Amino acid sequence: MRQEDWSKLARIMSKRSLWMVHFCTGCGAMEMPPVLTSRYDMERFGMISMATPRQADVLLVTGYLAVKTLKRLVQVYEQMRDPKYVVGFGSCTINGGMYWDSYNTIKDLSKYMPVDIYIAGCMPRPEAIIDAFLKLMDMIDKGEATGWKKYHKYYKQYKRNQKMAFSYRLDEVKDIEEGDGK
Amino acid sequence: MVMNIITSILVMSGMVALGFAIGMLFNGIARKVVARIHNRVGPPVYQGYIDVFKLFSKKTNISHGWIFDLAALFSVGGIALTFLFLPVAGVSMLSGEGDLFLILYLIAIPALGFALGAGASGNPNAAVGMMRALMMMLAYELPIAMVIVAMMVYYNTTSLAGIVAMQSNLKWAIGIPPFLIGALVADMALQGMLMEKPFDIPLAPHEIATGPLVEFGGKHLGSIILYKMMGTVVETTLFVDLFLGGGVVLNVNQFGWFAYLVNFIVWFVLILVVFLIAVIINAVFPRFRIEQALKFYWKYDALVALFILFWIFSGVMV
Amino acid sequence: MKAMELFSEAKEIKKGRIRIETTKDKVEEMIKKLKNNGYEHFVMLSCIDWIKDGKFELVYHMWSYKYKEHVMISIKINRDGETVPTMSHLFPQIETYEREIHEMFGVEFEGNKRLVSFVLEGWPHMPPMRKDFDTEKFVKEHYYKIPEVKEE
To answer: What is the DSSP pairing of strand A117-119 with strand C83-85?
Structure first.
């Protein structure tokens, strides 16, 4: 019981102090400056952008991801300390958006890393971004934002999907499923 | 005898806890003030407490060897020790004679721990940041050391507690013309010591990704941030001790515990004012390059400090 | 109108825009000549896939700040593995354009030592900008077939 109280307190504290790593991909990063600065001021919720993934709690994926970018994104995600949360930003991370038939952009981010919350739109307005962050805070408070636990639990499946995307070939699957999924 | 030791240990830990609490509060106040200057709402003033709690409740800790682990403790321990050597509102825990030299050395210890951790992390950004931090130390220590030597000559003591005692009855050093200029010089050096904006070259988040802090995260980062928060208290207290009489307004022997209370409140207000000056300068300035900072300190700041030194010497000679 | 005077085969297709059609062994000489006559800016190197003719068209774009003229030197090569000599010794930025065209169209540039992968890392299929590469089919068979993460 005491352990539970303690983690509840930790959740209440950490939801008011979300530090995000500002990883800019695609055009979505353009919507962040108004959110960060005087007009919409995200700091009133305790959110600031950090320079390195080691210090951050939230990974904001702003826009489409080429396969080459996904490699870097996975590295950034794995460098972050638990508990960590991923926010998929714009329709590109949901189903590819306007890049639905591009040969080099991934279509669905949740196949490669656990996404806690998506923001729909192309581009989402700053109000939508702030709304999403408030929802994320609510989820953290209730203990529903468990993407990082999911990544530990289904690590093999995520790694398999990442490997398939990186090599541009589906037959990698067999190698991985027959072996023990390194 | 045993009781005495236990009481003094309790009082000391109380002082250190007070220092940390004020440091965290100052972090929140600074962010709020900067936000208001930027025409934003800003975080609540208790944001510092939340941040530190969150960092210590992070679940994974990625370590880069035992030096990296030790460095975080080294910084926090070093800054706490420095705080105990400073007379706070006239109460000095560990100081004896000649402690001004000791403090000047002790202030370098936590920065050294910081450097150890940055070196152990092996990140090139950390190495660049640490090089810049040591350059900055070299730059701002020269003017502040000259001003401190001038004070030692004027008050004819090397003890900080002695200097504070001689400034009692509101005979603050800032009221003496050479030391009014000296306070300005030291305030500029303080800006570099606190790593506030024109001189936040070692951190420079947009250039070298927070420099020495680049590999710190979770509990390690929590310790380093505690060190930085406590550092603001230590450095502003040093300034207040030197120039503003350490916040001592009432004689303890005359008024008893009431004097302690008033002195602590005055000390708090004074360090807050000194800190806010630094924060307000921080809010409106961009960042210097390292050679510009070095030039500023050695060309203008040190020159003025040298002038004060001559002024005091000639005054003493006459 | 400097380029018109320099080369007899130059055609003015629009005011300030000159097109020269030539063969691959004359390109180096032409770029050198243009470079020495005030066309000091190499803008870009582009490639077009004329699949019906079985040709790739490489276009070298140059610009002169002095004459305010845009010169396009166009050469045609066979689609099936014809090599082109590199021009990267004349303008260093050509190296990167050649690298990109090598990756996207599969054109080999003789003498360019840096034809390693550029945007696509480890691409195992046909170069994707060729017109016989079916993008939609590839996307449907690749990205849409990657399985979702199943929760047990």
So the answer is: unpaired
ipTM of predicted assembly, 2 dp? 0.83
Domain count, chain C: 1
Q: C83: which strand partners?
A: C108
- Give the residue numbers spanning the domain of C54: 2-145
Specify the pTM.
0.83
Torsions phi, psi for B240 (to 5 deg): -65, -40
Shortest Cα–Cα distance, A120 to chain B (Å) = 27
C25 assigned to some structural domain:
yes
A contacts of C103 (beta carbons < 8 Å): none
In a domain, C81, yes or no: yes
| Four-residue CA torsion sign, A6, A12, A16, A21 | positive
Q: Is residue C151 part of a domain?
A: no
Provide the residue-wise pLDDT of chain B in tens; the chain has 318 residues: 788 888 888 888 888 888 899 999 999 999 999 999 988 888 999 998 999 988 888 887 777 778 888 888 888 888 888 888 888 877 777 766 667 888 888 887 787 777 888 888 888 888 888 888 888 888 888 888 888 888 888 888 888 888 888 887 777 878 788 888 888 888 888 888 888 888 888 887 778 888 788 888 888 888 888 888 888 998 898 888 888 887 777 777 777 788 888 888 888 898 899 999 999 998 888 888 888 888 888 888 888 888 888 888 887 654
Residue C123, CA atoms < 13 Å, CB-side half-sphere: 23
Q: Long-range contacts for C7-15 (Cβ within 8 Å, ≥24 apart)?
A: C10/C71
Of B38, B59, B62, the CB nearest to A83: B59
Q: Which chains touch A (3 or more CB pairs under 8 A)?
A: B, C
Residue C150 lies in a domain: no
- In this complex, the chains that touch C, judged by 3 or more CB pairs closer than 8 A, are A
Interface of B with A in 52-81 (CB under 8 A): 53-54, 57-62
End-to-end CA distance of chain B: 49
Structure-block tokens of residue A31: 């919507």
Cβ separation A38–B40 shorter than 8 A: yes
CA distance B282 to chain A (A): 17
CATH of the domain at C125: 3.30.460.80
Q: Give the count of domains, chain A.
A: 1
What Å distances lie between residue B196 and B201, B279, B285, C83, C103, CA to CA? 9, 7, 9, 59, 48
Q: b/e string for B51-68 if b means 16 or more Cβ within 10 A?
A: bbbbbbbbeeeeebeeeb
H runs (alpha helix) in B156-212: 160-166, 177-193, 205-208
Strands A58-62 and A19-21 come out as parallel
| CATH, residue A158 | 3.40.50.12280
Residue of A nearest to C120 (CA): A68
